[in-house]
Amino acid sequence: MEKPKISVALATFNEEENIGACLESARYLAEEIVVVDGGSTDKTVKIAQKHGAKVIATTNKPIFHINKQMAIDACIGDWILQLDADEQLTPELRQEILATIVKTKFNGFWLPRKNYFLGRCLTKGGQYPDYTLRLYRRGKGGLPCKSVHEQAVVDGKVGWLKNDLLHYPFPDFLEYLNKANRYASLVADEYKEQNVGTGFSSTIKYLLIIPKLTFFSLYIRHRGFADGFPGFVFALFSAIQKAAAYVRYWEIVHVKKIH
């Protein structure tokens, strides 16, 4: 039986601090690497090319999944593994992928992901195992490109892998705040499309009730307290981000821009 070929697909924007380690982790797995870059101004493109990637230049879209789908569409392998630049494959996961796709009835696989925050892996708070649907046969999977929080959609049966994908999204707390701000703006745009109300009841719901329920779910129900200080901070600021998205939306609706 001929060995299936794997394409690795990524979308990037100013990821020079991450892209090298990500592509190095996929070195013995990928037959090809396709990177769609949204106009990086740092060394992202040069580093990707150094690792043998095919780089496609485009603009940085508000919904980043559009660029991810562009990379997926450009792949020619039998299987596509979609990665983010701040993720790394463990040797165990590489071996599991290679062994699994040789003969399988599934068209896609969920990968368990370890998320690192404030220097440690979050094991509770609903953060592990953080399953993400990233591996699928070419032509059988893709991204809807409608929401910042969406998962891929696969046509056919989907299985589950056991070994971890490592995720290092926040090298420091400042970067966490920067990304949280960007996500809040994207969620605010979704609220606008949904025509969410801005009256008293909606304000109470989005500023108080939803953040409170978010903190309770992450810190108490999903035992985020077991992760110590990082677990508390993650739960707290996840709740704050919910409120921040609504404030941003209220600003879009009610505050006239002064030029």
How would you portray this structure in words?
By secondary structure, this protein is of the alpha/beta class. The chain has two domains: 6-167, Alpha-Beta Complex (Spore Coat Polysaccharide Biosynthesis Protein SpsA, Chain A), CATH 3.90.550; 173-254, no CATH class. Helix content is 41%, strand content 20%. It contains seven helices and 13 strands. It has a seven-stranded mixed beta sheet, with helices on both faces. The radius of gyration is 19 Å and the shape is globular. The N and C termini lie far apart (65 Å). The mean pLDDT is 95.
Supply the number of structural domains.
2
Work out the helix count.
7
What can be said about the biggest beta sheet? 7 strands, mixed
Can you write the helix and strand succession as a string? EHEHEHEEHEEEEEEEEHHH
Give the distance, in angstroms, between the N- and C-terminal Cα atoms: 65 Å
In the predicted model, the low-confidence regions spanning at least 5 consecutive residues are none
Q: What is this structure's SSE topology?
A:
Layout lengths: L5 E7 L6 H7 L6 E6 L6 H7 L3 E4 L7 H10 L4 E4 L4 E3 L1 H11 L6 E4 L1 E5 L2 E2 L10 E6 L3 E2 L10 E2 L3 E3 L4 E3 L5 H22 L5 H22 L6 H27 L5
Parallel strand pairs: 1-2, 1-4, 2-3, 6-12, 7-13
Antiparallel strand pairs: 4-9, 5-13, 6-9, 7-8, 10-11
Provide a compact summary of the structure.
This protein is an alpha/beta fold. Helices cover 41% and strands 20% of the residues. Strand 2 (32-37), helix 2 and strand 3 form a beta-alpha-beta unit.
